[in-house]
Structure prediction request, 526 residues.
Amino acid sequence: MGGVTVEAAVAEAFREEWGRVVATLIRVTGDWDLAEECAQEAFALALERWPRDGVPRRPGAWLTTAARNRAVDRLRRRTKEAAKLQEVATLADDHAPARDDSGVPDDRLRLIFTCCHPALPLEARVALTLRTLTGMTTAEIARAFLVSEPTMAKRLVRAKSKITNAGIPYRVPPAHLLPERTGSVLAVLYLLFNEGYAASAGADLVRRDLCAEAVRLARLLTRLMPDEPEAYGLLALMLLHHSRRAARVDAAGDLVTLEHQDRAKWDRGEIGEGVAVLEAALRRDRPGPYQLQAAIAACHATAPDAAGTDWARITELYRRLARVVPSPVVRLNQAVAVAMADGPEAGLELVDALRDSGELAGYHLLPATRADLLRRLGRRPEAAAAYREALGLASTEAERRYLAERLAGTGEDGPGEP
Amino acid sequence: MRYVMFVCDNESVGVPMEDADPESWVREMDARGVRLQGMRLRSGGDATTVRVRGDEVLLSDGPFAETKEWIGGLDLIECDNLDEAIEIASKHPSARFGWVEVRPLWEG
Prediction:
């Protein structure tokens, strides 16, 4: 076999097996750093051996065995870890979790739950999940989250030592904790996706790649938790958002709103998969926030154009979402959908109620939405005033440009009243 | 694993005595065998903070941090892992009105 092919096989094994090898080694040794080091050495060994001996039939099993042997060697050198050595050497897989076709136990679910334990700070959960499950290097994660490498390294070290010192268990939580902890896992993966999505207008590939990593992890979670419809909901939501990435930004780098996106640029393959995954989730009849958001995204993704969108259904979905997630931002989106389904007057009524509640004070999308509805109602001076209010609150240049353009469109863009 | 629970009460929240009474919690945790030791402290007003700077012993009246919340008691617990420690702490009545800090012991 040629060198290039073997290298490709190792690269693929790295993508596919890194998390599993690390997860198993952590279970076996209880030592997170040792697990990472041994996994790294196993992959280095593969680069050396596979060209000579050929790619093994079950690369994952080969790598896990190689990493485990390394761990035994290292622990043998540390005499005080005799007890641990005993454990590794006589490794009985009695308590091992489900095995896949290759016969290698899959510890990744306990790894995910441990990385996403709510006793760890959120930013550490995200970083640790990436480092241990995807094999992204500390330098790459640091770049993706716009912090220095030493800062990220410190964050990872602190998280790992808290897991050990505070006694965070390496396990899938028992049934009574499962719903809450699953929520934490889903939130971490969604945050990961949104980090990448927010960067999709930028030039940094590493940041954009976060989306792909988040999709991979969500896909993995659906395989590891086949009975959790929200895992499918999250995967569907990510796929449906991701399908629009090519149309979200114009040639000048400005964000394009959903209404004006070139739908020919949407990835039909991803939309098809997202819709199928969502349908499989909804069949379980246990809808949650991710499934509802995915259902809304699916309405947009399958509509021929903005006007042909099923706004009545979207309104209904937002109404249900607002019940499960009582957030004013959800209610604002609900108002937009109502305006599309029942006319701007009905939407404005909801937006004004939100404004009177004061819950979204300082959030530029509240006056921006109001402005848009007032404009559609022909109430131009009021629309202009609301656009000006939004302009004063918007934080990014792209948003300000968009709002200024809209303000000019009202024909009331003279200096504001004092 | 062994943890110390710092049980903090918030003096600015008026809590009816019977709601704040940890007695049934103590009984439950003693029966479970997870509470090794526990003690109640006198109020922060009775505390004296001691510092030595150079050769001088400096004293100040009150707890080391000026807050409306102070440590009202300590419990030493022993349980399987942090999840169990969190469960034990969350059942303490003071967790509802003040807070409980769970700290693992430094062990070899």
Q: What stands out?
A: The interface with chain A takes residues 1, 3, 80-83, 85-86, 104 of chain B (CB under 8 Å). Chain B has one domain: 2-104.
